[in-house]
Amino acid sequence: MKFIGFISILVFSSLLLVACTTSPTGRSQLNLFSGGALNSLGQQSFSEMKQQEKVSNDAELNGYVQCVADAIIEILPDQYRSIEWEVAVFESDAINAFALPGGHIGFYTGIMKLAENEHQLAAIMGHEIGHVMAEHSSERMSTNLLISGALLGTDLALSDRPTEQRAMIMAALGIGTQIAVALPYSRTHESEADEIGLDLMARAGFRPEEAPKLWENMAAQGSGSTPELLSTHPSPTSRIRELSAQVPRVMPLYEARASAGRLPQCPRPRSLNN
Asked: How many CA atoms lie within 13 A of 19 on its CB side?
């Protein structure tokens, strides 16, 4: 059994070597799943959500989100700009938005009300598209698979231990991997999506200084006090501080767009003030 556990670890170590890629920010990452498979999952998930959620037919709301989306899609790298992106607005008070592999964007009216202007809406959209560009869904699935495989190999290697001792060790390892691997990965993804999103919104002609203001609004809406160590997201304070520090870096991108007279015009619907 120990030999089988060793072989399992060896196989997963080999996967690590052959499946390493680089994210848009230059970070090394593990991707075991192909783009085609992720696109299919994205399409399936989006179709299911449109069946489960109430899709808004409000032309003004849809036009607002589509306007911001068009501005950001225009400046995406070729492989993402060539996608036929589908945008949907869901009538819900949920403070939520998402972008899925394959070109699917969803915004809930709750988060549209929270975003005070088109610049803050662009910060959200850039962040969500950033997750897609960095292939975070593939990385997360790959990491979970690796963790499961490693735990299975360890469990097999411990097969000669007493049952109670074996269970305690595996439980401790399970908690340890969540805190040491899975949760930090999630926080890394959120911070990286923030960085990519800030770059995208500036290139598209949206004011980057509005991004930290958006997360200040988010923090004001939040009610949790989960320690950052045990959270899948950076703390609001950390997020606002990091975004504020990054704004000067992307301001030249926004200014270049402004100088060219190519700033998007996406007025916020008055209905969002209700």
From this structure: 20
